[in-house]
Write a sequence for this structure.
C-alpha cells in the first residue's frame, strides 16, 4: 500500500506524541486529519519530495515569518449548499469573505518566497483570491448583516422604517401629554414589540386603541393608541419589503459564489496542503532539525542525534552508524545507562525521516525501511494471561517472521525475564536468526556471553554506554566497537558492600577467576546493622507454670520483705496469689514468692483450710446453705 504498517510501533517509539506536536502546529482540520494518518512512505521518490517540501517550508518561515494560514471550517459545506440553490446567511458570507482575504494574504506571502526562488512558493499560482467577489462581499455584508448601502432600494426602505418608527414614538408622546390625567406614568413603553401608553384602568375608554398588556396588579393597562397602531402596520409592511430585498441580495451573492465553486474548493485544498507542509517546517524549526540524506543502500549514520521528545539541555547527543557490512549492533552497559533511549532515538529518527519530517541531528543518513519492528518494554499482555517472558518471546517470534533484508529491528533486553543461562541461549539464537534475515538490527543485553558472541561473529559489532566510575553516574554516550561492562561489582563496592560479600558474588559469577574481577575495588569489612523499634505485642493472660505450682496451704517466703506467709487463694489469670500474712491477707505476684514448706508436709490430706482462712460468720453461712441444699434434695427424692 506504499506505507509501512504501524500496529503498536507508533506508541512504542512515541511517534504518536510527535504527531500530536505536529497537529498543534496546523491550523486547518483537514491538515490535522492528514497528520493523524501520517505513516512512513515506502517510495524513495516520495520521501525525498516530502523532505524537500519540509526544507522549503522551514526556509520560508525563516525568511518571511509564519504563513498567514487560516482555518476553513465549514466553507466547503456552505459553497456546496449555495451550489444547490441555497441562500447563505450574512454570517456565512462574511466568513467566506474573510477566507478569501486570507487567501489573498497567503498569495502575497508566497510571492515573497518566489523572490528568494523557493520552490514551495510556486503554490501561489494555484490560489485565486477572487478579488471581485471578495470586494462585493465586503461592500454588502458588514458585522454579520446586510449593509444599508447593499442596494438603493434597501437604503430607502430602512430610512422609511426609521422615519415611521420615529413618528410612532412622537405620536405616543403627544397622546401622553394630551391625556396626562388618564395616565399612570409620564412615558411610553414597549410591550410585545408595540409602543404603548400606561392608562389607568378606570380611564380605559378615554383612549382610542387596543390593550396590549397590563400591570401585575391590574390597575394599569398598557394600550397601543389607534394612530400608533396604523403606523405600526405601515412599519411591518416596510419590514417585509426590507426582508425581501435582503434575501434578494443574499441569493445574488450566494449565486456568485456557487459559480466559483471549483475555484473555492481548489483554494481550500491548496491551503490545507500548505498548512500540512508548513506544520512540518515549524516542527523542524522548533526541534532544530535537518533534512537527512535518504538512501536505499541499507546504511544509517547519525551524528549528534537527539531524541526529539527529550529536553535538548538534558539529552546527550548520540553518534551511531550501521550498515556497510555491519548489520547488527549489540549495546551493553549498566542499567539506566541510556541503552533504551539510544535504540529508540535511532528508530524514531528513521521513522520521522521516512514520513518527510526533519530529524534533530547535526547530520544524518537514513536508509529506506520496509518495516520498523520493535520489542521494547516488558510487553505484558494481561488479557491473554501471558507473563513478561511469554509476551516478549511471542513478540520476538512475530518480528522474526516479518524481518527481511529491508527491515530495521530494534530489541531491548534480549532474552530477559527468565533463567539467565537459558535466556542467554535464547538471546544468541534470536541474533543468529536476525543475522540470517539480513535485516539491520539493534539490540541491548546484559549477558556477557552475548558480548562474546558479537565479538567473534562477522557482521555484528558491540557497542557500550559510557559510565563515570567516580560519580557512579551514566554518561549516556554510545561508543561503537567496544563491549560494555555491567559495573555491578564496582558500583556495589563503591556503595559500601563488604569485601567478603563482593568476593562471594564474584566467585558465584566467575568461579575461581572471580577474585581477579574485584581486585582494587572498595568494600567495607562488615555491614553495620541498624536497630529498629520493637514490636509491641498484646499482653496475654499469665499462664506460667511457676504461678500454677503453688497450692493453698503452701508456706512461702514473700520478697523483698522476706516474711513467711501461707497461700490462701490460688493464682488468677495475672499470676497473682493471695497470701495470709501476719494479721492480713495480701495479693502478691508469683514472681515475689518462693516456696518455703509445701502444704502436704504441714497438713493432713483433705484438711479443711476454711478453719484457718475463713471467718466464723462465713463458715456458719456456708454450713447453713449446705444443710438446706441437702434437705431440699431429700424432699425432692421422696
Amino acid at each position: 500500500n506504499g506505507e509501512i504498517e504501524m500496529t503498536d510501533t507508533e506508541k512504542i517509539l512515541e511517534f504518536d506524541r510527535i504527531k500530536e506536536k505536529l497537529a498543534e502546529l496546523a491550523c486547518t482540520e483537514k491538515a490535522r486529519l492528514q497528520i493523524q494518518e501520517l505513516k512512513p512512505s515506502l517510495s524513495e521518490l516520495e520521501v525525498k519530495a516530502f523532505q524537500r517540501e519540509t526544507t522549503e517550508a522551514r526556509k520560508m518561515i525563516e525568511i518571511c515569518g509564519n504563513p498567514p494560514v487560516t482555518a476553513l471550517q465549514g466553507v466547503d459545506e456552505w459553497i456546496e449548499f449555495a451550489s444547490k440553490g441555497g441562500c447563505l446567511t450574512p454570517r456565512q458570507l462574511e466568513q467566506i469573505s474573510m477566507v478569501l482575504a486570507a487567501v489573498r494574504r497567503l498569495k502575497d506571502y508566497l510571492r515573497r518566497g518566489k523572490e528568494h526562488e523557493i520552490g514551495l512558493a510556486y503554490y501561489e499560482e494555484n490560489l485565486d483570491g477572487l478579488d471581485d467577489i471578495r470586494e462585493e462581499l465586503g461592500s454588502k455584508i458588514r458585522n454579520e448583516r446586510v449593509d444599508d448601502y447593499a442596494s438603493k432600494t434597501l437604503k430607502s426602505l430602512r430610512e422609511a422604517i426609521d422615519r415611521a418608527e420615529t413618528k410612532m414614538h412622537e405620536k405616543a408622546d403627544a397622546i401622553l401629554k394630551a391625556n396626562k390625567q388618564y395616565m399612570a406614568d409620564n412615558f411610553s413603553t414597549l410591550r410585545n414589540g408595540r409602543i404603548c401608553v400606561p392608562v389607568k384602568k378606570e380611564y380605559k375608554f378615554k383612549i382610542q386603541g387596543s390593550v396590549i398588556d397590563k400591570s401585575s396588579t391590574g390597575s394599569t393597562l398598557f394600550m397601543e393608541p389607534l394612530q400608533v397602531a396604523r403606523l405600526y402596520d405601515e412599519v411591518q409592511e416596510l419590514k417585509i419589503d426590507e426582508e425581501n430585498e435582503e434575501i434578494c441580495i443574499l441569493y445574488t451573492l450566494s449565486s456568485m459564489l456557487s459559480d466559483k465553486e471549483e475555484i473555492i474548493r481548489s483554494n481550500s485544498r491548496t491551503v490545507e496542503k500548505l498548512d500540512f507542509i508548513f506544520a512540518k517546517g515549524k516542527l523542524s524549526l522548533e526541534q532544530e532539525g535537518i533534512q537527512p540524506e535518504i538512501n536505499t543502500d541499507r546504511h544509517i549514520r547519525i551524528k549528534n542525534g537527539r531524541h526529539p521528545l527529550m529536553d535538548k539541555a538534558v539529552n546527550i547527543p548520540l553518534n551511531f552508524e550501521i550498515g556497510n557490512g555491519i548489520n547488527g549492533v549489540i549495546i551493553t552497559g549498566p542499567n539506566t545507562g541510556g541503552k533504551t533511549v539510544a535504540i529508540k532515538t535511532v528508530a524514531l529518527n528513521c521513522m520521522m525521516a521516512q514520513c518527510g519530517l526533519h530529524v534533530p541531528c547535526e547530520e544524518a543518513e537514513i536508509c529506506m525501511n520496509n518495516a520498523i519492528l520493535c520489542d521494547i518494554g516488558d510487553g505484558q499482555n494481561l488479557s491473554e494471561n501471558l507473563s513478561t517472558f511469554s509476551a516478549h518471546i511471542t513478540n520476538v517470534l512475530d518480528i522474526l517472521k516479518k524481518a527481511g533484508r529491508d527491515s530495521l529491528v530494534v530489541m531491548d533486553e534480549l532474552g530477559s525475564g527468565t533463567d539467565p543461562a537459558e535466556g542467554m541461549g535464547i538471546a544468541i539464537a534470536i541474533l543468529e536468526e536476525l543475522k540470517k534475515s539480513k535485516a539491520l538490527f539493534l539490540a541491548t543485553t546484559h549477558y556477557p556471553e552475548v558480548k562474546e558472541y558479537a565479538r567473534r561473529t562477522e557482521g555484528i559489532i558491540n557497542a557500550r554506554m559510557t559510565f563515570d566510575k567516580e560519580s557512579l553516574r551514566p554518561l549516556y554516550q554510545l561508543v561503537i566497537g567496544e563491549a560494555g561492562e555491567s559495573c555491578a561489582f564496582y558500583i556495589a563496592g563503591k556503595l559500601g558492600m563488604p569485601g567478603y560479600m563482593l568476593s562471594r558474588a564474584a566467585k558465584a559469577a566467575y568461579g575461581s577467576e572471580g577474585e581477579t574481577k574485584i581486585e582494587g575495588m572498595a568494600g567495607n569489612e562488615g555491614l553495620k546493622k541498624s536497630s529498629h523499634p520493637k514490636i509491641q505485642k498484646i499482653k496475654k493472660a499469665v499462664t506460667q507454670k511457676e504461678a500454677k505450682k503453688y497450692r493453698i496451704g503452701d508456706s512461702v517466703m514473700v520478697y523483698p520483705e522476706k516474711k513467711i506467709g501461707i497461700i490462701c487463694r490460688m493464682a488468677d489469670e495475672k499470676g497473682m496469689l493471695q497470701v495470709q500474712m501476719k494479721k492480713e491477707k495480701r495479693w502478691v505476684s508469683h514472681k515475689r514468692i518462693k516456696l518455703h514448706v509445701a502444704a502436704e508436709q504441714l497438713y493432713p490430706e483433705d484438711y479443711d483450710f476454711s478453719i484457718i482462712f475463713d471467718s466464723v460468720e462465713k463458715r456458719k453461712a456456708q454450713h447453713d446453705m449446705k444443710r438446706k441444699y441437702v434437705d431440699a434434695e431429700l424432699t425432692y427424692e421422696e
